[in-house]
Amino acid sequence: MKNFLLLSLLGTATVTPVWANPFAPTGENITITCTSDRDGSDVILTRMGSSFQGIIETTDISGDAMIFPGVNSLTFMHIEGDDVMTFVVHFDTHDYDLSVQGPHAGNDHGNCDV
């Protein structure tokens, strides 16, 4: 009975293919470009090797980012002065949500070349 239960649980587990997460830790730097639906500007996100450190680059901001993995997503967080930029890339829908909190508060969304 124990073996049957274990096999049943293993049989129901889902495996996410590597291509479903372009930021899967491979040891290499990985870059993705996202385009705003609002104004057509690009945001370039880079993951540095297998770490949870990265870089976020926009037309106005460029700097280090902390990366937090989620379910079918990655969140890049960049802090500059009193502003906190949170950029969430969704792998299942190939889109993103951007929120800036602080003196330059704002929101944006768009699509990524995932």
Explain what this protein looks like in three dimensions.
This protein has 114 residues and is mainly beta. Helix content is 10%, strand content 50%. It contains one helix and eight strands. The chain has one helix at 2-12, and strands at residues 30-36, 42-47, 53-57, 62-70, 73-80, 83-90, 95-101, 106-112. Strands 1-2-3-4-5-6-7-8 form an eight-stranded antiparallel β-barrel. A hairpin with a 4-residue loop joins strand 6 (83-90) and strand 7. The longest helix has 11 residues, at 2-12. It is globular, with a radius of gyration of 17 Å. The relative contact order is 0.17.
Outline the fold blueprint.
Layout: H1 2-12, E1 30-36, E2 42-47, E3 53-57, E4 62-70, E5 73-80, E6 83-90, E7 95-101, E8 106-112
Antiparallel strand pairs: 1-2, 1-8, 2-3, 3-4, 4-5, 5-6, 6-7, 7-8
Q: Would you report the number of β strands?
A: 8
Task: Supply the number of helical segments.
Answer: 1
- For the residues shown, what is the average pLDDT? 81
What's the main sheet like?
8 strands, antiparallel, barrel
The percent of residues in helical segments reads under 10%
Give the ordered list of helices and strands: HEEEEEEEE
Shape call: globular
Spatial order of the strands in the main sheet?
1-2-3-4-5-6-7-8
**Strand coverage percent:** over 45%
Radius of gyration over alpha carbons? 17 Å
Query: SS-based structural class?
Result: mainly beta
pLDDT under 50 segments (min length 5)? Answer: 1-19
Record keyword descriptors for this entry.
114 residues; mainly beta; 1 helix; 8-stranded antiparallel barrel
